[in-house]
Amino acid sequence: MIITRSWLQEWIDISQIESEDLIKTLNNIGLEVAEYKKIDIPSKVVVGKVVECEKHPNADKLSVCKVDIGSEIKQIVCGAKNVAAGQFVPVAVIGAVLPGNFKIKPAKLRGIDSEGMICSSTEIGLPKLEDGIMVLDESIGELKLGKELKEYKILNDEIIDIELTANRGDCLSIYGIAREIAAAYDISLKSPKDIEFEKKDKMQLGIGRVLHVKHESNIVSNLVYKVFSNEKIEIPLKIKVRLSFVDEKFDNKLENMTFYTTYTTGVILRAYSYDIFKKEDTATIEVKKDENDLDAIFDSKKVSIVGINQIEESKPTDKNEYFIVEASFIDPQILSKKYYEASKKSKITTDWVYYRSSRGSNPELNFGMDYFCYIIRKYSEIDIFSGSHEILQEIKEKNINVNLFEINNLIGQNISQSKIVNILQKLGFEIVKKEDENIVVKVPEFRHDIENEQDIAEECIRFIGIDKIEPIPFVFEEENRINQAYYHFKKKKELREYAVAAGFYETTNYIFTNKENLKKFGFKTVKKELDLINPITNELNTLRTSLVPGLLEQAIYNFKNGKRKISLFEVGTVFDENRNERIKISFVFSGVKESDNITNQGKPEEIDFGDFVKKISMVIGDFDLVKKEPQNSLAHPFVCADIIKNGKNIGEIYKLHILYQKGFDLLSTFFCEIDFEKIPYELKEAEEYSKFQISFRDLSILIDKNMQYSEIKPIIEDIVPKEIKRYYPVDIYESEKLGEKKSLTIRFVVQSDEKTLSEDEISQIIEKILNSLKTEIGAELR
Predict the structure, then answer these.
(1) Do the bridges between strand 45-55 and strand 63-68 make them parallel or antiparallel, or are there none, so unpaired?
(2) Does 552 share its domain with 648?
(3) Would you say residue 473 lies in a domain?
(4) Is residue 149 a contact partner of residue 133, using CB atoms and an 8 Å limit?
(5) Do residues 103 and 123 make contact, with C-beta atoms less than 8 angstroms apart?
(6) Are 135 and 242 found together in one domain?
């Protein structure tokens, strides 16, 4: 995007801002400057007026001109075809040095003296504007004879080339860049209302007399049409020069004027021949979908596609009595998507309009149309039909909720709410609501690139200045999206995997069971008033309060079918008396330790309580057991315990009562039922371990017959040194010989983190523990 200082000056006062500072500011706000160029017309090139122009007597291609330069009239021989009397022209007087070190000296051409040179645009350092000499007009300022051209800022302009990203369609105009500069310097920008447009049309006839517009209801474009009389139209020098600076030039005069308006305002304008739409006394434009579902302009045939192209024969010429100007806007996302889909079917040519429309043009159509009317009236004698035809769609309002904390996190620095609001307001954002740490902003219609809070943060950074943001290490903070349901699922999945790894097979039973069986086995039942009203069968007439009865039935069934080793588990829902739900995991282990083989002579041993406890520990980890009284009749009165983990009672474990075992014709059978919610589940962390040798030492002591290990364990916890890594009971022995005492053997795992312990050091550690137990509980070494 190429801009010039004088062009910007029409919309914003930058007269007090140095170009170096302006370029720095543009770079800081994300409008990267790729190139800067200053046009300097040489000294002694002045405004002159051709007062006489006659053919050279000795040369057909030369003219002898009398040129008034204010102080005197010079005779200059000129070879340009377009030179004529009455023209204001640039004159290089004697002593001027033109680009290329071309020095102007007195000369004699074919016998005629020449005192200077009438110049073309390229000869004084400007781009080529036309063939022949450059003709001056007052669009560049008041023309004073003898005034040096270097004093005219429009000609001696400063050109800045800005590299824009594809999403910044709002900056594809002089007005758009001026808007950014105004925000950066906090200075006022001339709005469309500030330009003194001549609103009143000179022609009294309304547009409806000469033009009708029809459109289908499914059109997505916004369109405005006006009709103009096609008098003699000339492009002023200012516009010619500026279009040459941006390297744009069209053969059609009106296309030059519409492009200039688009480049200035950002509003897409096209000019059409009136005659192509004319039928008898009036013209009719029809807007409808074409074969590719694109909005198109039709007469008897398609003459243009909105935002994409226009056929050459639809453009106005000098022969047309009237011409039509169209201002258009279409959502860039809709246009790009539809064009992409259409281009896959057939090749569609595009012109300069597509580049701008697909990136997002200015939707303020009447602004662009009014500016075109302003410049066309200013530089041409032309009439405009009053009124306009409009096809306008409602542009959806885009509001974004901005949280101050989130914005500051994105920026990496604390910025006050008032500063953020000030930046956004200067950029044309409207503050809809402001409450505590939140503000709701309305995105201006011309900012097609703003979609979310991150875009708002980027706008703030641009105008605070990236170099003013204190650099800090990047911290990526991902929001924790894992909820309790995930942990519940993960925990259940892992417990199932551990159970299978321990040799258990998963089974599933109905949540309904037989109420009489629950009562028979001594389990609680749901209160009568909360029980099932319409059970599915007489056998399944209540909600289960334990998983054990179901597992017992599975064990009996498998044993009757020849299985001698039965390891099953179930994870499922149970209910209490008040019908409150809980999830439990239960296990049954019944039969023999291993299958028949030669090593056990076909008589494998039955499982025992220790075997079952080891298997359960493989699933839930280490735990303690505390003897308890059975809570149901299935439990053996002497082999029944609570499971204690991390100091909490999480379930129970017991052997099947011998009477039920024989009654059901089972071998040794054990059950375990654990409250699923009480099983600890937390992040597993690595722990340091010692690389030195580990030793095992058993300590057998005599203690009171009625004393439980659970009473001794807390005492040991207080007295063991750090070299004791673990300890656990391995044997309890009672006999008449011991009287009121019993023998308890505790195994200690001994290991140092610093060295390999000697036998004497290990013995001393065990001796200290024994002495402490003697003192605390009266223990004796067996």
Answers:
(1) antiparallel
(2) yes
(3) no
(4) no
(5) no
(6) no
Type and span of the H or E element at 463: helix 453-464
Which of 269, 267, 276 minimizes the C-alpha distance to 316? 276
509, 572 contact by CB (below 8 A): yes
With contact defined as beta carbons under 8 Å apart, do 743 and 700 qualify? Answer: yes
Q: Does residue 143 sit in the same domain as residue 163?
A: no
CA-to-CA distance for 75 and 48, rounded, in angstroms? Answer: 12
Which phi and psi angles does 295 have, rounded to 5°?
-65, 125
**pLDDT tens track for 640-678:** 999 999 889 999 999 999 999 999 999 999 999 999 999
Under 8 Å CB-to-CB from 766, ≥6 apart: which residues?
Answer: 697, 699, 748, 750
- Side-chain-side CA neighbours of residue 688 (13 Å): 6
pLDDT tens digits, 110-145: 889 999 999 999 999 999 998 899 999 999 999 999
CATH number for the domain harbouring residue 83: 2.40.50.140
Residue 456 sits in which domain range?
399-466
Among 41, 70, 40, residue whose Cα is nearest residue 144: 70
Burial class, 366, CB count within 10 angstroms (exposed 0-12 / middle 13-18 / buried 19+): middle
Both 489 and 343 in a single domain? no
Q: Identify whether the C-beta of residue 493 lies closer than 8 Å to the C-beta of residue 571.
A: no
Whether residue 346 is contained in a domain is answered as yes
CB 19 within 8 A of CB 5: yes
Do 273 and 378 share a domain, yes or no?
yes
Return the SS3 of 726: strand
Dihedral sign computed on CA atoms, order 281, 286, 291, 292: positive
Q: Do 372 and 406 sit in the same domain of this protein?
A: no
In a domain, 686, yes or no: no
H-state helical runs in 129-192: 174-185
CA–CA dist 276, 320 (Å, integer): 10
At 559, which CATH number? 3.30.930.10
Task: In whole angstroms, give the CA distance from residue 404 to residue 735.
Answer: 78
Whichever domain contains 434, its CATH number is: 3.30.56.10
Contacts of 32 (CB under 8 A, 6+ apart): 26, 162, 163
Sorted by sequence, the CB contacts under 8 Å of residue 480 that are 6+ apart come out as none
pLDDT digits (tens, 9 = 90+) for 279-299: 888 999 999 999 999 999 999
With a CB cutoff of 8 Å and minimum separation 6, the contacts of 82 are 130, 131, 132, 133, 135
Q: What CATH number is associated with residue 368?
A: 3.50.40.10
In angstroms, the Cα distances linking 715 to 240, 681, 723, 725, 758 are: 101, 28, 17, 16, 26
* Cβ atoms of 709 and 699 closer than 8 Å: no
Residue pair 126/78 in contact (Cβ under 8 Å)? The answer is no
Query: Dihedral sign, CA of 421, 423, 426, 430?
Result: negative
Q: Is the pTM of this model over 0.70?
A: no
Is the separation of the CB atoms in 446 and 412 below 8 Å?
no
CB 558 within 8 A of CB 669: no
657 shares its domain with 719: no
Same domain, 211 and 112: no
Q: Return d(Cα 458, Cα 450) in angstroms, integer.
A: 10
Tell me the average pLDDT across 482-493: 87
Structurally, how many domains does the chain consist of?
Answer: 6
Could you read off the pLDDT of 305-362 as tens digits, one per residue?
999 999 999 999 888 889 999 999 999 999 999 999 998 888 899 999 999 999 999 9
Write down the pLDDT at residue 466. 74
759-777 helix and 709-719 helix, angle to the nearest 10 degrees: 130
In a domain, 477, yes or no: no
